[in-house]
Write a structure and sequence with these properties.
Layout (H helix, E strand, L loop, with lengths): L17 H9 L3 H9 L17 E5 L5 E4 L3 E2 L7 E2 L8 E6 L6 E6 L5 E6 L9 E4 L4 E5 L12 H9 L3
Antiparallel strand pairs: 1-2, 1-9, 3-4, 4-8, 5-6, 6-7, 7-8
């Protein structure tokens, strides 16, 4: 077993092993698997989190790593949830994507490598970035809720420490 790698906010970013990954993938719907595992895209203006207005955290649907905070969400008019910054920059990987005759930046979960969406340089201040994310790639946990911890890595404790709650 490899030595865990931790993000600046205290989360174990070690990828799931083959058995853990199989268990995580077994819990996905067909649409979630298409987006997360096969780099698909949900239809615009159809995602369940597009209209989410409550305060909380948006986590990876596959491994539950926190990816975005509600306070960085904004209305982009694109039809997908958009954020101007990740929860922790180490939690979101940027990958050059040249599919479909375009050059874009794909975003993936840094722990499980699942496809989340794309990153564009047309967001609001202060970052001027737009993380355009598929709703099915995320799960929302309202403030005061407990993070799902399918890999049993103490994510709820790391989250509490990162956001300054006991």
């Amino acid at each position: 077993m490899s030595t865990p790698t931790f993000s600046p906010s205290g989360f174990d970013l070690s990828p799931p092993d083959a058995e853990e990954r199989k268990r995580l993938e077994a819990g996905l719907t067909r649409e979630e698997a298409e987006v997360l595992l096969h780099h698909g895209t949900e239809a615009p203006f159809c995602g369940g989190l597009l209209e989410q207005k409550d305060s909380g955290v948006y986590c990876c649907r596959l491994c539950a790593l926190p990816l975005f905070l509600h306070k960085t969400k904004f209305e982009s008019g694109t039809g997908w949830p958009s954020f101007w910054a990740p929860f922790d920059e180490a939690h979101v990987r940027a990958i050059r994507d040249v599919s479909y005759g375009m050059v874009r930046t794909e975003t993936r979960c840094a722990r499980c490598d699942s496809h989340q969406g794309h990153l564009f340089p047309d967001g609001p201040p202060p970052s001027r970035l737009r993380y355009c994310i598929n709703s099915v790639s995320l799960e929302f946990v309202p403030d005061g809720g407990h993070l799902r911890d399918p890999l049993q890595r103490g994510d709820d404790k790391a989250y509490a420490a990162a956001v300054g709650v006991a």
